[in-house]
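Practice problem: Aspartate carbamoyltransferase
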Amino acid sequence: MKKHLISAADLSREDALRILDTAEELAQVSERSIKKLPTLRGRTVVNLFFEDSTRTRISFEAAAKRLSADVINFSAKGSSVSKGESLKDTALTLQAMGADAVVIRHGASGAPQNLTQWVSGSVVNAGDGTHEHPTQALLDAFTMRRRLGDLAGRRVAIVGDVLHSRVARSNVLLLHTLGAQVTLVAPPTLLPVAVDAWPCEVSYDLDAVLPKSDVVMMLRVQQERMNAAFFPSAREYSRRYGLDRDRMARIHDDAIVMHPGPMNRGMEIAAEVADSARSTIVEQVANGVTVRMAVLYLLLGGSEPAIGGTL
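Answer key — structure tokens:
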């Protein structure tokens, strides 16, 4: 595997399957009474978050600690960054501290790629602007594979605010690599200009896509990133693109419902759908720790085999 994880496009099919298979083995750790391995003892992982994200940061922190790494949490709020320090200056500080890996979330697309120029350790993209979020795509694929088996030929519908979603882009790239067929479903105003170049299909009609889908992934409507009228009203959006009980009836019996969170309950997804047995939303959170353990383990080349000497 390469030294950094910046984009889902960086992963070959072999790389992706290796991460998912490693995560499957590491999942055994979560079932133990002592949820810890010595594999990254003596390594330092820095969580460098310029944007708030409780779940992703905690997930990476838990993953590193379960592998016995030392963890430093660096929040831009209240730090020198808020006083005008640049990303490069911050990177050089982390380099001086001897960071073996830097997990970065940043509001600017491309920030993680820039960081690779200034630190000698591995860089993991935990979300950059509206660009990508590769570990979210990996945990989504891991969740799908546990529920559905091999993803080759599976049909995945990704529904909603694709324009502002780094999760959607990473999922399209990774799922294509794994052989799944992806359809993006959204109003035209919530699709990126360059979506024609993505390896997927596009539809504006959710009701037509649902019966053919094995996975329905609902995206959060990112109202905080919107400074224009992308749809007439929340009610109108929900009527055309929300997943409610009536629409759930159109999905075949083995299909699953996903959401990367946090959810706008009642807008893109009804509470009863989010909490149903077909929903994998809670599993996705738990699987996030396992998958991020696998990514850190493979990037940092753990000093000891992960489990039973098999990795």
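Discussion: The chain is about 35% helix and 15% strand. Students who identified this feature from the tokens alone can consider the problem solved.
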